[in-house]
Design goal:
- By secondary structure, the chain is α+β, with helices and mostly antiparallel strands.
- It has three domains: about 45 residues; about 80 residues, RimP-like superfamily, N-terminal (GMP Synthetase, Chain A, domain 3, 2-Layer Sandwich), CATH 3.30.300; about 70 residues, SH3 type barrels.
- Helix content is about 40%, strand content about 30%.
- It is built from four helices and eight strands.
- Strand 5 and strand 6 form a beta hairpin.
- Helix 1 runs antiparallel to helix 2 and helix 2 crosses helix 3.
- It starts with a helix and ends in a 19-residue tail after the last strand.
Length: about 220
């Protein structure tokens, strides 16, 4: 729209209708500036959103590093921690797993007590928060490259911070894990995804496969 306005304005000036020409020229310039500001605002919002995801990811990593040894002392594994900030009441969700048995309610209660005590001492979270402790469930979240490697061949759904080939969401079988890079098959094509770029990931359960209901993946041999 601005380009057509601008060309028409210049033509009017050239054809001696100077007042109308300069008026249209001014309108075109103002409209162009508005669109430029809107585009800049959009980029700012995108950057702000990315920064927010990055900060949340860093907080999740900080909490995980704090709580892993606390939960290990109870003979359990901390799979990961998810922190969801809120003005009124934030949420801290902790996923745990037992090595060779199912997680029990007693396990969750014991972890909840120890985690609460550790968070009270270190005080990493501002304001009020709700603590949730649970087993991962069928659509278990995946937090580390090692966890992806335990489920090679199974389908996963994940979201990334920075788009890959124009898309942020992927779903398909995990084909390989090379260091910190996950190879996921999307629509029959392999896609390499850096783990640092993953914002959220979880398994897609196949309820047609009975073994999947109790499958905890294959841990690498030490």
């Amino acid at each position: 729209m601005d380009g057509r306005f601008l060309i028409y304005a210049i033509r009017m000036i050239a054809e001696s209708d100077v007042r109308l020409g300069w008026t249209l020229f001014d309108v075109a310039i103002r409209e162009g500036r508005k669109k430029q500001r809107a585009a800049m605002d959009g980029r700012f919002l995108i950057f702000a959103s990315r920064d927010d995801r990055k900060n949340r990811s860093m907080r999740n990593e900080e909490l995980t590093n704090l709580l892993v040894p606390v939960i290990a002392d109870l003979g359990l594994e901390c799979l990961g921690v998810e922190y969801s900030p809120s003005r009124g009441n934030s949420l801290v969700r902790v996923y745990i797993e037992a090595a060779d048995r199912e997680v029990t309610v007693d396990d969750c209660e014991a972890v909840s007590r120890q985690v609460s005590a550790s968070l009270d001492v270190h005080d990493p979270i501002e304001g009020r928060y709700t603590l949730e402790v649970s087993s991962p469930g069928f659509d278990r979240p995946l937090y580390t490259p090692e966890q992806f490697a335990r489920f090679i061949g199974q389908s996963a759904k994940l979201e990334v911070n920075l788009p890959i080939n124009g898309r942020r969401r992927f779903q398909g079988p995990i084909r390989a894990v090379e260091g910190a890079t996950i190879l996921l098959e999307q629509d029959g094509v392999g896609v390499k995804i850096a783990h640092d770029n993953v914002s959220k990931a979880k398994l897609v359960p196949d309820f047609g496969d009975e073994s999947n209901k109790v499958n905890k993946g294959k841990k690498p041999k030490k």
